[in-house]
Amino acid sequence: MASFLTLFLIIQITIVMFQLPKYSTSSHQKLLNHAFHPAIPIVSSYFKNCVTFIVTDTPKIEEHIQDLNPLFDQQLIHLLTLQPNPSKNTTSHYYPIPNKYLTCSIIITILEEGTKHLSQFHTQITPDFRAMTQREMDHYIFISHEKFTNNLLSSTELQKIKYKLILPIKTVNYYSKTGTTLCFYCNHGSSKLININVRKSFRKADIFPDFTGNGFGHPLRLTVPTKYPFVVELEQIKIDEWRIKRGIYKPVLEVLSSHFNFTYFISPSTGGDSGTHHPNGSWTGVMGDLYSNKADLGVGCVYSLSRYPFASFSGGIRYVWLTFMVGQPKQSYSWKVMFWPFRFHLWISILVSLLSIIVVFKLISRYENLMSKSGKKFPLTAEHLTFTLVGNNVPYPEAPVARFLLVVWLFASLIINTLYVSKLVGLLVFPVKHVQPKTFKELVDKPNFHFRYGLDSSKGAMYGYFKESTNPTIQKVFEEREPSKPIIECLQQAVKENFACISWRGNAEYIAYKNLSLIQGKSPLIAADEDKIMIVPLGLSFPKNSVLLPNINKFIGLLFDSGQGSKWTMDDLEELQRNKVQWQKEVMSNNRKKGWKDERGNYRQRKSGVSLSTRHLHGPFYMYVVGKCGAFLAFMGETFFWTYMRIKNEVST
């Protein structure tokens, strides 16, 4: 079988060699002819449906490249010449490529002058943003003189390319059978040159091997934010030595390290956040460390449009979103509470019923007084009927009709009195609570919700979102916000005041349960989950177009498609719960020392019962004061009236 494949390959190469066009004997034509000879079978065999870029560092060679179309079976070819000044490059970086060529690209670069123009190659062909080719996915063939091979592969520009092959032009034998590539970590985590026999390779993976699947113990520099403990929490072991204490990233990195055989050194991100873009164009946080080449990998960094030109992101490990946290609804104490048991229309109905029953008994009393033979007057008055509403006893009339109506009215008064008292007791013991805002639109609605608000000091993507948003509500929040403060202070202010702390949902919830939870384990805060903004995936971040991204991204996708991410999240929550139980045991131990027991004799934190105070009784006190004032005014009016009448009588006599 092997001999058959070898014979088949020799026949194919012979056919290709006979199809070579006849070039003139000029030096550039000869260089071009010999340079492309080993590349032709590679392109025709493995990149038939790919767009071909031919890049040169010598304009004279470009004059002869026009004849190369027959060599590549009429493939779509773009010709570029590296220029010292990219702005003078007449070739655009954006090409109208047919759909069948969108899946891949092959870039053949002729470097007659070695590494001299590699900086132009990076800025024009493989820049970090808006590049015409993708250095972590596309395939690159570099053709140059044999003496430049080591310098090319050791250059910074080519080390950023994943699939690359150097085809040397030899001085004695132009037709080289062997290419050279660079294995990133094959030498115990360091780089190593690998020779590849182009003529004996039957698969594309043999010519362009993927060396990022095994790190051979290579140490990666990992940058971690310190302001988002809900996803990752660091612990310092020694000076300049850190480890991940807990969080969903801990099992993720352990599995990745084991699968890809790499190690990592952890360091806190500059500034502690995920990434803040400053007005001068610089970055801090995880983004700053990646952009300035201080780290190879970052965690706790969400995708955003402003970050896209400077970093690459893996698939989501979990989703996060922004919201605001407010304290539990505050109890409302008002003198109006004595009117709250009944609605306004019910108060009017009671008043109309009282007036109507008074009128009916007035008519009955007149009739009974006229028909009475004993001379006794009718005992019921308007005051008696009114006092029945508060439970006072009344004299009973002798007339059967009056007695029947009185029984009906007493029964109605009993129901009204019972309902009012029971409802009032509930309002006094459990006062009505204020309505909390549930959306950002309600939060900025000052007439109905008198709340102040502010962002926590983590900045990063949250600050950038509020700053760059075109939503009028979000813009108003950003303009009227209070100065940022640490998240623990922000949440404490939300608990005590009418204040909304805007933060990442998971981070605020974690801080609240860890530092602000009640003795029963409940949180004193409420999240406005009805209005979620900036719902983004949270994954791993890399330097732009990193060669590590494709394999790690694919592996993460497989892990979380299988449900492993949900399991890790639950494991992390269970660890938090265990820490909380341990904390509660410490609280119980402290309570035992203080001698606090509950009704069962168990030691616990002392809990006071619900007792009424003057705040609950504003209404009765106000009514008492109003009644005294009214009585005093009535007394003074009556005194003045009778004094006036007495003086008037004395004058008349």
Automatic annotation (TrEMBL):
TM annotation in the entry: 346-364, 404-430, 621-645
Compartment(s): Cell membrane
Main location: membrane
Pfam families in the cross-refs: Lig_chan-Glu_bd
Signal peptide, first to last residue: 1-18
Membrane topology according to the record: Multi-pass membrane protein
Source taxon at top rank: Eukaryota
The Ionotropic glutamate receptor L-glutamate and glycine-binding domain, residue ranges: 223-301
Assigned keywords, A-Z: Cell membrane, Glycoprotein, Ion channel, Ion transport, Ligand-gated ion channel, Membrane, Receptor, Signal, Transmembrane, Transmembrane helix, Transport
UniProt xrefs under InterPro entries: Glu/Gly-bd, Insect_Ionotropic_Sensory_Rcpt
Keyword Transmembrane helix carried by entry: yes
Gene3D superfamilies (UniProt xref): 1.10.287.70, Periplasmic binding protein-like II
Name the record gives this protein: Ionotropic glutamate receptor L-glutamate and glycine-binding domain-containing protein
